[in-house]
Design a protein that fits this description.
alpha+beta; 2 domains; 4 strands; four-stranded antiparallel β-sheet; Alpha-Beta Plaits; globular
Length: about 140
């Protein structure tokens, strides 16, 4: 069976269009990074000397210095609230900090940042226990 010139030209055009579409899709996927979820980093500290105001103040001052790290979108520092005592409420910690990041990559940048590393070195003698909750934010639909 012979193929006419017209049929051959149409097949070549379709093949070329398919290759162009495939290349355009690959470029679009490369140019548009996947949307990454926001990340919440919540840390609880228990002091070696619970109730020691000077130690608590020193830890809070150290946490405040972390605000200089550019990838931190928000930083809240707190102590246990005087709320109703219930079985589901754990207020045994001394100090807590809550940070917001745009994504897990930024949280890793924070972990490795020289200011964070300096905070650990200057304040780790204050705490006996640290507990971290990292949460990936589920986006609204």
């Amino acid at each position: 069976m012979e193929t006419s010139r017209r049929e051959l030209a149409a097949m070549m055009a379709l093949g070329g269009a398919g290759m162009a579409l495939s290349s355009a899709q690959a470029a679009a996927q490369t140019a548009t990074p996947a949307v990454q979820a926001k990340l919440v980093h919540h840390v609880f500290f228990w002091l070696k000397r619970p109730g020691n105001q000077a130690d608590r103040d020193q830890l809070i001052a150290g946490l405040r210095r972390l605000r200089a790290i550019p990838v931190i979108r928000d930083l809240q520092i707190g102590v246990p609230a005087s709320t109703e005592k219930r079985d589901v409420v754990d207020s045994s910690f001394d100090v807590s900090e809550l940070m917001l990041f745009d994504n897990a990559v930024d949280q890793k940048v924070y972990q490795d940042h020289e200011i964070h590393q300096a905070f650990i070195k200057s304040c780790e003698h204050l705490w006996q226990k640290v507990l971290v909750y990292d949460m990936q934010v589920v986006p609204d639909r």
